[in-house]
Amino acid sequence: VVRRYVGSTPVPSQNTVDGQQSQHTKSPELASDLEDAAVTPIWFDVELHKPTASTGLGLSIAGGQDMEDDQIPIPGIFITRINPGGLADRDGRIQPGDQLMQVNGIDVSSLTHAEAVRILRNAGQDVHLVFTRVPESDYGAESDEPQQRASNGR
């Protein structure tokens, strides 16, 4: 199941970090940063089912509120690698560069790297992920292939 959101449309989230629960709707800082740059991100959901709770998702992340990296222009958690043959690779929708916004309704957009890793590792067998992706065509790329790929969920 893939649902897409264009622009800075808020996504309902539930924050359960540090034992506090609050239901809220959050438009991430990314939205305002990208609006300033005249770039419209695509929001999309990916639901993955792991064979066992301990099975990995087959992806690597970078970033977090505690990380400073010249390669990551804005704060957040980003996909850096999709492991060949892993769950995310077999699904085909997640790409390096996608920003992870939520895991099972938990807002991870402003967490530290360690907190995001902990939430991903403890997500259980059914994992609902929400991402944003900036289409390459918004940067003035000649080809519209990335936009087509995003539209096809690949």
UniProtKB/TrEMBL annotation:
GO terms for molecular function: protein kinase binding. SUPFAM superfamilies: PDZ domain-like. GO terms for biological process: cell-cell adhesion; establishment or maintenance of epithelial cell apical/basal polarity; receptor clustering; receptor localization to synapse. One of its GO terms (cellular component) is cell junction. It is found in: Membrane. Residues 10-25 have a biased composition (Polar residues). Keywords: Membrane. It comes from the Eukaryota. Residues 1-29 are annotated as: Disordered. Residues 45-135 form the PDZ domain. This is PDZ domain-containing protein. It comes from Calicophoron daubneyi (Rumen fluke).
